[in-house]
Amino acid sequence: MTILKGKRILMGVTGSIAAYKAADLASQLAQAGAILDVVLTASALKFVTALTFQSLTGRRAYTDADLWGTEAHVLHVELARKAELLVIAPCTANTIAILAHGEADSLLAVTALSAKCPLLIAPAMESNMYAHPATQENLAKLAGRGAYITGPAEGHLASGKSGQGRMLETLELFGHIRLMLGRNGLLADKKVVITAGGTHEPLDPVRELTNRSSGKQGYALAQAAIDAGAQVSLITSVERTPPVGARIVTVRTAQEMLEAVLAEVAGADALIMVAAVADFRPKDIPDRKMKKKDGIPQVKLEYAPDILEAVANLKSGKKRPKVVVGFAAESHDLLENAALKLQSKALDMIVANDISAEDAGFSVDTNRVILLHANGESEALSLLSKFEVAEKIVNRVASLLE
Ligand code: C5P
């Protein structure tokens, strides 16, 4: 992923047991290519050490001892100046109060005062402390100044009780960090609708016709569009962890997907139809389960709605997005079939996907695709991860929207 590569993130760690989760977050961010400067408060050092973070980030981690060192007069200014994002995770009630009141009694506090970059706060504390009007007022004050506050979640707390106070898990915080870093990306202010997964067409109340689409490529596209700053609606028929920031619309049948797409494309800039939508569906669905004793059922099929056709027939400029991208998953005559679909479905681009290869197409994590453009140009991409494919598609969509 490119969103974190080379990004300078300043991470503040404060005195909560959730500091152990901050170590995992630091590790994930560093592995994703971020340049991480970690500042620990004195109470954070009761739970974890500077060495923990130094070992995970490969860079020096700072403590209040550095505040009074020989470099002190520039250290906080330098740390703050270089940072593209300040993440305080976990952030205790004490640090929230310090930030809200602009106190300057620790290296983290003076660095936060000096920093002009966006601030992300991940609170962690006992539920009564979180609910206390003083904490709520301090958080409201910080939010009013533009801080992005995420969590805390409900669940088991260090006190042994259950309630709202847990710091968000690494994966979620990672998603919020991506969301913040992407805000001014190539697709900032653009609305993108993406469909993912295979549709399910009922045969009877318990059985259905479906396909092997995993939704991986569609979810990767949703994440890549969010990384590029887009506002994303993900219309999905699969249960996967959605990217943080996506609006999720869950559907099952082609008809439901059609309705969701028509509703979501209003005001959208781009539609990317990754979903493997059924072409046929059972015509008459009995309201009772088909019984074996009644013999082999003769299932009559009918066409399922063609979503891209319906979008193509929307009046241009009204509800139709400016850029429409389709996918063509084919087992034979890939390019011919894809080129036909590009034309017949009035697409700006089609992603041709050879599903006969073992390392591409359904379920696997890699994909080999050819991008066909409406102007006749084509680009064959090498074998890439589905996320890399998604980033390429998002870049092309951004160019088409320019
Ligand atoms: O299934 P097929 O290969 O024809 O799909 C090509 C493109 O058309 C895909 O982008 C798919 O999401 C879309 N499609 C659709 N409605 C259908 C079938 C496919 O919009 N009923």
Give a verbal description of the structure:
The protein has 14 helices and 22 strands. It folds into two domains: 8-181, Flavin prenyltransferase-like (Rossmann fold); 191-401, 3-Layer(aba) Sandwich (Rossmann fold), CATH 3.40.50. The model has no long low-confidence stretch (mean pLDDT 95). The two termini are 23 Å apart. The protein is α/β, with parallel strands linked by helices and 402 residues long. Residues 254, 273, 275, 277, 279, 304, 306-308, 326-329, 341 line the site of cytidine-5'-monophosphate (C5P).
Got a strand count? 22
Q: Which structural class fits the helix and strand makeup?
A: alpha/beta
Q: What is the CATH architecture descriptor of the largest domain?
A: 3-Layer(aba) Sandwich
How can the largest sheet be summarized? 8 strands, mixed
Number of domains: 2
Helix content: 25-40%
CATH superfamily of the largest domain: CoaB-like
DSSP strand content = 15-25%
The DSSP helix count reads 14
Q: Hetero groups bound?
A: cytidine-5'-monophosphate
Per CATH, the class of the largest domain reads Alpha Beta
Mean pLDDT: 95
CA(first)-CA(last) distance: 23 Å
| Unreliable stretches | none
